[in-house]
Specification:
The protein is 18% helix and 33% strand. It is α+β, with helices and mostly antiparallel strands. The protein has a single domain, classed as Nuclear Transport Factor 2, Chain: A (Roll), CATH 3.10.450.50. The protein has a four-stranded antiparallel beta sheet, with helices on one face. A hairpin with a 2-residue loop joins strand 2 (100-111) and strand 3. The termini are far apart.
Length: 139
């Protein structure tokens, strides 16, 4: 049975497999990062944990994992948007010994009965030794 973790909008419990797509229980996967018990070891791990934060409704983690230079003052998540699947398409750098990296992905969601996708190449840099989301690569 999966461990329970109280990290989602409205105080509902998150149980089962992590939304990031790695196949692990949420509490043992991105839940650890969301609770501040661990840091993402790679840019891809940070991107996956950020997707999971959208899926479970954790704007605080999204803001904490955003680079200080590009972080907005606040973030509102749309509760009508249900994130359903993540596809990692490509990574460049972002490893254990890198200082920069990018991850191209496609995130699927539903809003009511309407499906949608977000495609992005996210850029990441280390800030104070930790991976941080910088921005969407416009190129």
């Amino acid at each position: 049975m999966a461990k329970r973790d109280r990290r989602t909008a409205g105080g509902a419990e998150v149980t089962g497999t992590c939304p990031c797509g790695q196949g692990l229980p949420y509490a043992d996967c991105c839940g650890r990062l969301h609770r501040g018990e661990a840091d993402a070891p790679t840019a891809e791990a940070l991107m996956r944990s950020r997707y999971a934060a959208f899926a479970v409704g954790d704007p605080d983690y999204l803001l904490r994992s955003w680079h200080s230079r590009t972080r907005p003052p606040r973030l509102h998540l749309d509760p009508a948007q249900r994130w359903t699947r993540l596809e990692v398409l490509d990574t460049d750098g972002g490893g254990l010994f890198d200082s920069t990296g990018s991850v191209q992905f496609r995130a699927h969601y539903r809003e009511g009965r309407e499906p949608g996708t977000v495609s992005e190449r996210s850029r990441f840099v280390r800030e104070n030794g930790r991976w941080a989301y910088l921005d969407d690569d416009p190129g």
